[in-house]
Amino acid sequence: MTGYRSVVVILLLVLIVSGCGGRSGTPGAGAGDGANGSSSAGSGGTNVQPPADGSAGAGNAPGAGESEPAPADPVRDQLGKLSTDEKIGQLVLVGMDGTEINQNVRDLIEKEHVGGFIFYKDNIQDKKQALALFNALKAANRDQPVPLFLSVDEEGGRVSRMPGEFDRLPAMRAIGDVGSEELAGRIGGVIGKELSGFGLNLDFAPVLDVNSNPDNPVIGDRAFGEEPEIVSKMGISVMNGIREQGVIPVVKHFPGHGDTAVDSHLGLPVVEHDLNRLRKLELVPFARAIKEGADVMMIAHLLLPKLDPDHPASFSEPVIHGLLREELQFKGTIISDDMTMGAIVKNYDIGDAAVQFLLAGGNIVLVGHNYDQEKAVIQAIREAVASGKISAEVLDDRVYNVLKLKAKYVLAGEPATGPDVKAINREIRSLLEENGLK
To answer: What's the predicted TM-score (pTM) here?
Structure first.
């Protein structure tokens, strides 16, 4: 019996010693050792200590039952600090009268918190005046929480807002006829240099419409050509050239303004094509631009009865959400064409159109003219938010997208020094001579 008892005691001692070992089965890997990053995966992470600064740290990943800390999102933080009126302002880009800041402009900045301005030929006289205006707008916006978009339609050819000191660029049809992607990219670079020199940061170009209708009164030689392949190649090259200069390109006019016989500045064009036809022709350049990382898409004022018989594309949910967001998977910023154009104001209430555009999936309402129209749009959005027609979630979604774009391009309020007109003109002349376009 004595021998038997001795064996039992020995066995008990062995069991006790084994039970005191580390949970991983490694001798000495006790509960306190996880703080030094030496605990094994099997420990469950219950004793892992985070670094003092709150960072994840090597060997300090949360274990089972613990959640990863959410990564910092400065854009989300910025959104959370904006008032409702400041958020609404970011959804509107407006025009102005004259060549200097007036009280209406100050009110749009200080009271309405607008997200930016678009400039036309009557806002720009020469380099000195233009630079003074753009810098004055930045100064007026200094106390606002978000920097401004400062934008123009600078396509080259007949659609140009730059002052007369610059040599003229050819129409994009001439670039398309040359067929050189290198030339197109360099042309985009020239446009970007002109704009960035002034501190402009958003350009409503390039045109990605396929000019398939010879009777088209509004597109014509603004398009790169009549075939989707050449429009895609040239347009994307121009887009990238503009973007490389730190200017945001806006591709337009989705889903395609090329086969129209009505100028949407004057009336509402009707496009009878079905989705199969659009996929084969009009949508091709836009789909390729999306794959190449297009940041902003402008929606045209077109009625496409086979897609939506009740609403123009510019505030159609089947077009904006269904086609552009879901089918083409565009995650960027969507801006309307100018809501003061005849296609809208002759047929619809501008405030209601703006609200429907946002509900359909758009982000920025362009109101290029008329202070009263601009105020009407802002008020309509404000009322839609107050009533819940535009929910808090939808408002934040639309605004977050805009803030993210501004953050991506590091928009800021520092004054610009002006473009080097002589150097840019030399580059333009060289490009034209090299490609037989002079």
So the answer is: 0.83
